[in-house]
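User: Show me a protein chain along with its predicted structure.
Assistant: Here is one chain, sequence first, then structure tokens.
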Amino acid sequence: MYRIKKEFHFSASHQLKQMPDGHPCARLHGHNYIVVIELSSETLDEFGFVRDYHELTAFKNYIDDTFDHRHLNEVLGDECTTAERLARHLFEWAHSRWSEVSAVLVSETPKTWAEYRA
């Protein structure tokens, strides 16, 4: 199986309103997010690629236009804007465009990652 990955970055705020009082994530706060998209294929295209990285510019544009310097609760229309749910949202957006998408990973901090995988 061939696998490729590409990394993207954005900054955004959110609030996990479902958390109990006193939990730090219940307060309005922000992160410098890292998103990694993974594409997999058993074969390569005529150019020797799983997918040309240049084609993933649409994913970068979606992230930049929709999420960067935004409030995720407003963008996603949800009070539970966890990294796990963001990973699934981005996976579904990307997978509907490129069948080779096999996973999306989201990092909120240098030590934490959430992943949604097919």
